[in-house]
Amino acid sequence: MFKGFSRSVIGASHVKKGIVCQDSSDYKTGNGYAVAVVADGHGSKKHFRSHVGSKFAVESAIETIERFYEDRERLERELTENHEMIIHNMEKQIVAVWHDKIMGHFAENPVTAEEKKQFEEDEFNKIPVESYYGTTLVTAIADENFTFGFQIGDGSLVAVFDDGETAMLMDYEESNPANITASICGRNAASMFSRFFVGNKKVLAVFVSTDGLYTSFGKDSDFLDYHTIIASQLSDINTFETSVVKNITKRTHFGTEDDISLSCIYNSEIVEEKSMILREKILNKRKKS
Question: Exposure winner among 146, 161, 237, 264, fewest CB in 10 A?
Answer without folding.
Answer: 237
